[in-house]
Amino acid sequence: MRPLYLIAQHTHAYSEVMDVICVVVPAKNEGGRITTVLQNLGTLPIDHIILVANGSKDSTMREALAMRLPKLQIIYFHECLGIDTPRAIGAKTALALGSDVVVFVDGDMVGTFNENLMELVDGILLKHMDMALTNCYPSPPRHIERYNPTFQWRLNLNKELGLDKKINLASPAHGPHAVSRRLLETIPLRELAVPPVTMALARLNKLKIDVATTIPHYRLGSSVKNQIHTNKIIDTIVGDCLEAIAAFHDQSRNRQWQTKTYLGYHIDRRFDLLDLFLSEKPCSK
């Protein structure tokens, strides 16, 4: 029987005294991009890079292994975990490694923004945030983007949480962000598979949420997808925000607004594989 996942890692010692910083990188079929992402991260003063490669059929794994980064740990799933689910996988691994700060950076973000990532880390360690977000829209969205319902629903959620004056459109669903160990020990790790729900539960538990850095969207360097993907992402984020509002009010989770149910990529999230992974005893440091 084929194992659920494989772990490849290089030995790397870190201090028991200093704060431990991990970066989690979800990646599916990011060949040609993952090398740049890992090269950028490899120059940072961090302890571990956790690459969660899931369902990749291209050169992603080969490129990552060829880099032989001392900080790199790879968790490879044969099957695709679905959008955002790898964050929860990486978070559990980071906790087992003793992490105090966990930064999430998508595997297609080839932009150069290392200073911003360290601002996220500082937001957790120096400003005592529990969720440090990136402002990806320092200027109002362009005219064409204003008709994208994700902006309205991100703002709706932030208003519902009483955070709109502080974080405006910022969301853990968009751009790099960081969380504290306290957040990961307070909120069930399973919830990280739906990022807006993570934020709602953090707010419910009176954890500190704020913007720690600004990276305009175009600087992320995310890969350009087709319109079908864009439409599914819109439905995913709108549904996630609806679910987050329900979670914040301790109501039954619901992804419906008026006559439409916003599923998008949510139906592809492999909570079954995530639950199996989360139920296993963590690896020792």
What does this structure look like?
It is globular and about 50 Å long. It has helices at residues 34-42, 60-67, 85-96, 114-125, 149-160, 164-167, 181-186, 195-204, 227-248, 271-279, and strands at residues 5-9, 21-27, 48-54, 72-77, 101-104, 131-135, 177-180, 209-214, 256-257, 260-261. With 285 residues, the protein is an alpha/beta fold. The two termini are 27 Å apart. α1 runs parallel beside α2 (60-67) and α5 (149-160) packs parallel to α9 (227-248). The strands form 2 sheets. Strands 1-4-3-2-5-7-6-8 form an 8-stranded mixed sheet, sandwiched between helices.
Proportion in helices: 25-40%
Question: Which regions have little confidence, pLDDT < 50, spanning 5+ residues?
Answer: 11-16
Give me the secondary-structure category. alpha/beta
* CA(first)-CA(last) distance: 27 Å
- Mean pLDDT equals 92
The number of helical segments is 10
The 3D shape can be described as globular
Strand order of the largest sheet: 1-4-3-2-5-7-6-8
Order of helices and strands: EEHEHEHEHEHHEHHEHEEH
Strand percent estimate:
15-25%
How would you sum up the major sheet?
A: 8 strands, mixed
Estimated radius of gyration = 18 Å
Tell me the total number of β-strands. 10
